[in-house]
Here is the input.
Amino acid sequence: MENAVVLDRLTKRFGRFTAVDEISLSVRTGEIFGFLGANGAGKTTAIRMLCGLLLPTSGSGSVAGFDIYRRSEQIKLNIGYMSQKFSLYGDLTGYENLWFYGSVYRIPAGSLKARIGELASSLELEEFIRRPARSLPTGWRQRLALAAALLHRPRILFLDEPTGGVDPVFRRRFWEILYRLADGGTTLFVTTHYMDEAEFCGRISIMHQGRIVAAGNPQELMRTYGQNNLQDTFVHLISRGGADA
Amino acid sequence: MVQTIAALIRKELLQIRRDRIMLRLIFIMPLVQLLVLGYAVSTDVKFIGMAVHDCDRSSLSREFVRSFSAGDYFIPRDSGLPLLEIERGFQENAYDAVLIIPPDFSKTLAAGGAARAGFIVDGTNANAAAISLGYAGIITAQFNGRTASREVPISLRQKVLYNPEGESIYFMVPGIIAVLLTMITVMLTAMAIVRERELGTLEQLVVTPISTPALILGKTIPFAILGFVEMSIALAFGVLWFKIPFAGSWPLLYALAFIFLFTTLGVGMFISTATRTQQQAMFFSWFFSIYTILTSGFFIPIANMPAAVQYLTYLNPLRYFMKIVRSRNASSSSCGR
Ligand SMILES: Nc1ncnc2c1ncn2[C@@H]1O[C@H](COP(=O)(O)OP(=O)(O)OP(=O)(O)O)[C@@H](O)[C@H]1O
Ligand SMILES: [Mg+2]
Here is the structure.
């Protein structure tokens, strides 16, 4: 399969407000795709539609080759999702959270134990896994959420601002983990507000007020819009898009 | 499916175990409620207003009436109402008991027959009614003893209006158990989904391949389990502490409770999916619980309610369960009177 995610004029309206306005894009299998955009651009809304959490108003899309309207059950088996807001159980320990999600993904108890151990060591979570999730520092909490999203070895991973509020050292290490996953063949669909992170992506799209205003390789985009760095490119595109609107 | 449901149940019970306040609410509240309500209904009863209808007006009947005023238990007075309207006195709270002496009272006794007198109590306050009946029985027995020369004594025919099953503690405690079971299961289930929605954890759950039936079962079974635990604690307390004689069948009681739980868990689940915040869910479950308890006959006998409301009570599942727990538990003790 060539493309992990394909969207064609996907639209979401809340009443008369259009949160996602006819976006079209495709993400190749195994690539790290940076889904950028200003606050309120509609990134989270778009991801929620892709993960089967929200029904689109119009347009079409497929994830892992499955139609987002009709095959959401299949999609759910093939994706991992880390939401923008921490959404594991704060009163349970990391281990209990992972055990719970592993069981929900129907991983047999024997292999689940091994899988948790494996993820805990590759994400360096061992020391923290017995503590209530709510008591963990943000960086560790995000790693725990990543571990929960990875339990069932998804082919596509949707990460909605996985490094929000995380310090630079932690962010760097988090991205090293993401690189390793991409090397292993996992497709990554990542939103971020950090431009240094965006530069790590194979391709990016930039959203503004529900629309994709530009898409491509980060270096190419900088050249196309005559900017020295991605930050300026982003600001240039958003302010230009704002003038259009 | 089974693995998913088991995982949800485990998680749900684990979360409740972690929540100290919740634990207290679930396990200590019932005991406090049983103690407070159980004992609140068994206070001393004295100075009971008693209307007298002495149709005999003989010295013997007057002596019988006078014996009621000994010991401050009853305050006999003329009702001033015709015999057929004695209920009005109950409704206007003019008195709580009525003693009726038929015209042939002394004549029957003199002829060596068994004389009869009527004693009617207002059963709205079940406890006071039961105690009044007890006093009246003792007073009559003493009166018979004093005039022991007679072979056939006076027999007192007693009748409780409005709440014929009136048995204070034996009546209240099973009722409290039914109320507790309703409140706990409705409220906990009502919180089940909406809490996760509010905290944002539902989102993570919905991206998993979990099916809707599995989610609903996994979110209700834990509370059914808790409901049974709660009911067992309260029952054990009722039997061991309040010494409530249990005459029915335990398996039947639990089976009927199981059927009853479908209604409360269903309502709780409905509230949980229909509301957006825990606050709304709390409000709706309170509303439901209060309505259910008030129209179940727990405090106010259903027969005392206006006709329209009486029909409304047929919609109330607790009405039936209240009857079940009370009859199961009280059946052996109430025939004593
Ligand atoms: N359920 C909803 N009902 C109404 N409006 C909504 C709803 N969800 C999102 N919106 C609106 O849609 C717009 C896009 O929101 P979205 O969360 O997708 O933005 P975002 O790009 O993820 O922003 P951020 O960078 O702040 O996370 C916002 O204006 C938001 O208020
Ligand atoms: Mg967002």
